[in-house]
Amino acid sequence: MLELISLKKTYKTGDKALDNVTISVPKGQIVGLIGPSGAGKSTLIRCINRLVEPTSGSISLSGRAVTGLGHRDLRAMRRRIGMIFQEYALVERLTVMENVLSGRLGYVGFWTSFTRHYSSDDVSRAYHLLDRVGLLDHADKRADALSGGQRQRVGIARALAQEPELLLVDEPTASLDPKTSRQIMRLLTGICAERDLPAIVNIHDVPLAQQFMQRIVGLRAGQVVFDGAPSDLTEDALSEIYGAEDWHAMRRGVEEDMAAEADGIAQLERIGA
What we know:
Blueprint: E1 2-10, E2 16-25, E3 30-34, H1 41-48, E4 56-61, E5 64-65, H2 71-79, E6 81-84, H3 96-101, H4 110-115, H5 120-132, H6 148-161, E7 166-170, H7 178-195, E8 199-202, H8 206-212, E9 215-220, E10 223-228, H9 235-242, H10 244-272
Helix pairs in contact: 5-6, 6-7, 9-10
């Protein structure tokens, strides 16, 4: 279980990114973080693996403290937390296989990481993960030859190569088209279910969050203003998270995008016919 208690982050400017956030995520649960820009979603994810240092409060994973760890212990802790980034964070000049194997860097010594001579077990694991994310035939391609959806699949496989106890996912579909976004979310949720792996997903697409997340946490100005099932995410709740005016404008934009996608599909079907 991941547990955050009274987590706060205040920057030197005095701005509060997180204000007394207390949530727990049990094993196997997939939590969607939603909220307007600047609500603290990315900061929350980065505080959990201490890419951003919280000002106060506590974080624990499986009963072991994350806050307060020194450099060596923090490195060991980060092996247990897989991170999937919005912009993929791949090494473009390396192959797909090499990028996936980089998920093992926290487990190997300097010389192995420098020469990239991984064990046969690590290589076998990487092939298995590439097969699971549908990229086995692309193992020897350079990362910069892939599409956005394929790059995100490599990022997922790399995070899983760490054999993590928790996945942190930062806007995995922000740069993807609607169809690919659904494919990526279906892949992520399927993998989490197979491994009983908890995940926190920072996601800007509310309908996508409602479709795929087991639980929704809504942030506004660094505070939790909603925590519940997707089915409980009513118009009033969404207005509380985003502000009534902003939510209604966002909903109109989503409806327009969905109509445009449906129109494009219909045109392709007519051409095919």
